[in-house]
Specification:
The protein is an alpha/beta fold. It has two domains: about 290 residues, no CATH class; about 160 residues, no CATH class. It is built from ten helices and 33 strands. Strands 6, 7, 8, 9, 14, 15, 21 and 28 form an eight-stranded mixed sheet that branches. It is globular. About 5% of the residues have low confidence.
Length: about 525
């Protein structure tokens, strides 16, 4: 389940100002990484497994409202933009930092990217690798191992059918619950199956193996890797700029568009993937009890993780990840089993301390890992049949009411906590289609939830927007709240974020057939008319 998270070792509202070398004591399996904070902390390092949360300028353990004053920008990568390896000391924008930070940061490897407008971007190599590959503690550990990923996954590719199957071995330490998240499945599939991604991911362990330095009882490594070919990709970033030299030091990559080389679909198999059906026992209580998880968790990166229970899934990166050429991933479940989903009785609340270390027998704290990035891939072409009536209505809206459909984007609704509302009754992902419409010089978002499994249909929701970036910032949370509100629109949230007069619902046609997710063709004109009234 996705839950709020803090790091026990650090104070509240601390900002990351430097990320440095990896290091460990000889004979210790756990790698650490130098991390400096403002205000200064007594501990100036963290476990490398914490890297999904670590980005320059990011505030950890946030309590107070933080206004991010960093410069933001977008990079569209062409074949005329080579990634040139340099040290961060070459970045003029770094020279405004205090001397201690400037010297420490200057040692780090980076990529210099010259833009057509004359500005140079300096991207720390670890930050690029973090958003590409290191979205979970598991992947952080696997990246510096030469064998872990290959040992945990067995790949079968059917070129004729343009699909692949990834079998997860029974002995894996990868958290099985994480496969409930589309973003996790997509990332694992991409790293394993895309040759471009695989080469880049593998280069991390190759550099690691050959570049470790030893000094007395310590081993250190300055992170370095070979980037994938990124022509056609886009990234959005925040950072520090120096206008005189036209240079930007990228602190954090906040959005990433990847052009993958992937099969049409990828299925994941594991013995623990099961789908249950209800019977008389499913409404009963199982013998025994379980400890209810708290609303918030603290990561203690100095304790070991226990393997005696499934890992807890924590809220991960805020990065928005989009595969420009999307592909479908799914879990292949066993046949339905009766009665096994009965609920145990909840006992007292469990301790909030968790560990992101590799699980082991007799560990100190419950194991945990991160839920990965926010998957923003557009899946419209894979689920057009689910929205056929809705798309027909949009055609009518354009033809009859002088509206312009600017774009259509379809996402899978996110998994949250223990809710299963993000899934259809068939087990597939439930989608939401977001359509940008222009009418009378105003812009609107028209939202339609996938009810193709026959559940009660939500009203079509219309939101007037005045700032596209503001919408993008809040759309992810809106989708999450649709699920936490038991598949209904979070009206109070919409009121607070956009204003009561800036959103409205339009009921679907009241026909029996509509209850199965289908809209009769004769009901489409009336539906379009009611939508047009809200766009006036």
């Amino acid at each position: 389940m996705v839950l709020p998270v803090s790091v026990k070792a650090f104070d509240a509202d601390v900002k990351i100002v430097h990320i440095g070398k990896l290091f460990r004591a000889k004979g210790n399996a756990r790698w650490l990484i130098n991390v400096w904070m403002n205000p200064i902390q007594s501990r100036k390092y963290a476990a490398f497994s914490l890297i999904p949360l670590l980005a320059r300028g990011r505030v950890l353990n946030q309590v107070k409202r933080n206004i991010d004053k960093r410069l933001t920008g977008t990079l569209k990568i062409t074949d005329q933009m080579p990634f040139v390896e340099v040290k961060l000391s070459e970045c003029p924008a770094l020279h405004w930092q205090p001397e201690s930070i400037k010297n420490a940061e200057g040692q780090q490897w980076a990529f210099k990217v010259a833009q057509p407008n004359g500005w140079n971007l300096f991207i720390p190599q670890l930050e690029l690798a973090r958003v590409l590959f290191l979205s979970s503690s598991y992947l952080a550990r696997a990246a510096i191992s030469t064998t872990q990923l290959l040992n945990d996954f067995d790949i079968h590719i059917d070129s004729r059918q343009n699909r692949a199957t990834i079998r997860v071995v029974k002995t894996t330490n990868f958290p099985i619950r994480a496969f409930d998240y589309t973003s996790v499945r997509a990332m694992i599939a991409w790293v394993l199956l895309d040759p471009n991604a695989r080469r880049s991911f593998t280069s991390i362990s190759q550099h690691f193996k050959t570049e470790i330095e030893t000094d007395n009882n310590w081993e250190t490594w300055l992170f370095r890797f070979q980037p994938p070919t990124m022509v056609g990709w886009t990234l959005r970033f925040s950072g520090l700029a120096d206008k005189a030299s036209k240079s930007i030091m990228v602190n954090e990559i906040t959005s990433l568009g990847i052009l993958p080389q992937m099969p049409h679909s990828v299925a994941f198999e594991h013995g623990a993937f099961r789908e249950y059906k209800k019977d008389d026992t499913s409404e009963q209580k199982m013998k025994g009890s379980y400890r209810q998880r708290p609303d918030e968790h603290q990561i203690d990166d100095e304790v070991t993780a226990s393997d005696d229970a499934e890992a807890i899934i924590l809220q991960g990166s805020d990065l928005k990840l989009r595969f420009i050429k999307p592909f479908i991933t799914a879990k292949t479940t066993d046949k339905k089993q009766a009665g096994s989903n009965a609920k145990a009785e909840e006992s007292e609340e469990a301790n909030d301390i968790v560990s992101i270390d590799e699980p082991e027998p007799c560990g100190d704290a419950p194991a945990a890992d991160f839920s990965g990035h926010q998957d923003e891939s557009d899946l419209t072409k894979y689920c057009e049949s689910r929205f056929s009536g809705f798309f027909h209505m949009l055609d009518t809206l354009e033809k009859e009411y002088a509206c312009t459909v600017v774009n259509k984007i379809t996402h899978a609704l996110p998994k949250t906590a223990r809710s299963k509302k993000h899934l259809l009754k068939t087990g597939g992902e439930r989608m939401v289609c977001c359509v940008t419409v222009r009418s009378n010089s105003k812009r609107y978002k028209i939202l339609e939830i996938d009810t193709s499994d026959g559940i009660q249909m939500l009203s079509t929701r219309i939101v007037r927007i005045t700032n596209e970036h503001y919408w993008e910032e809040h759309y992810g949370e809106l989708k999450r709240r649709v699920i936490t509100s038991s598949l209904s629109w979070p009206i109070s949230y919409l009121d607070d974020m956009f204003g009561e007069s800036f959103h409205a619902g339009v009921p679907h046609p009241s026909r029996k057939e509509s209850g199965k997710g289908n809209i009769p063709s004769e009901a489409i004109p009336g539906w379009a008319y009611r939508i047009s009234e809200k766009l006036a």
